[in-house]
Fold this protein.
Amino acid sequence: MLGAVLSLTLAGLLFGALLALAARLFAVNVDPRVERVKEALPGANCGACGYPGCAGLADAIVKGEAPVDACPVGGSKTTAAVTAIMGVESCELKSPRVARLLCAGGENCVDRGEYGGLPDCAAAALLGGGHKACEYGCLGFGNCERACPFDAITMGESGFPIIDEELCTACGKCVAACPKHLIELVPKHQREWVRCVNHYKGAVVRKICKTGCITCESCVKNCPSGAMQCVDNVCHIDYDKCQDCGTCAAKCPVKCIMPGKKVS
């Protein structure tokens, strides 16, 4: 009996010593900055940075594989904190961005048929582009709402997504979820944006959507900073040039440009 106890004790000591030796030999040294960077990140684990959660991004930042401003959710405060931890020179902070919908159709756009399939934008888009007469318009089944990890998107009574800019973190999940590519990340301070991306000619647009861009180019002709451009029947704003004066919105006859500050 005593011999068996001694044998088990010696075996335990031997295996313990071997495990301790293996732990030392195969130990992976973790840079203490990884944990500090992880704590500085928002902890949303949304994956918008392209890494598997905040821990993955923290490890990549410390290894030099990702920039200190790689988190699109944390904003300037997070970037400043990570920059201090990493001991690098302050980088130029990106302008805060917010998701904006590039469609003003909804109830203003007529249906070309009745859709009875899955209430899913991607599924509906596969059936000839969807049930809307405008093949470029929002289908309203809420893929963007379901993709948003911050509850910043809700579907209105008309089945049109409403984005809460205070809750939006510009993570880009909704951008990827929209099969029509109708959501883009815009500088948060920018008040004007074109809410239509149809490629039709004006005569066609007038028949199918009350708020569709007819490419009259009134916005281009009246923009004082040359920020408005129309290419392939699609008008858009160069946000680097835009002075946020609101002229384009005031001159748009169909009101598909979201108005900004009051024009003096």
About this structure: The beta strands are 97-101, 153-155, 161-163, 183-187, 228-231, 234-237. The chain has a mean pLDDT of 86. The CA atoms of residues 101 and 183 lie 5 Å apart. The first helix runs from residue 2 to 25.
